[in-house]
Amino acid sequence: MESLVFNFPAGAPARHRARAGVVGSGDLEVLLQPQSAGRIDVSVTTSVGGMAAIWQAQLSRIFTAQAWPSAAIEINDFGATPAVVRLRLEQVLEAVCAQP
Fold it and tell me: What pTM did the predictor assign?
């Protein structure tokens, strides 16, 4: 298992927690928790080593494509594809933005 940490700029704090996905063969889980305004802290635990540059590029694309609330995000990966990474992150964003 490899652990990676990334930081990105963000807006106001998320209003509540959110979760998407499960950890299993070829999938991943994303847990989002509100934190102080201005940044997103992403912690990735992955079963695939040596992919830090790929994770950095993928997460940069996701977090710069649209406005995100400030949050601590935990990603638990078991070999998911970039499309699944984007899907799960968009699911937690939708959950945070949709609920009052």
Answer: 0.91
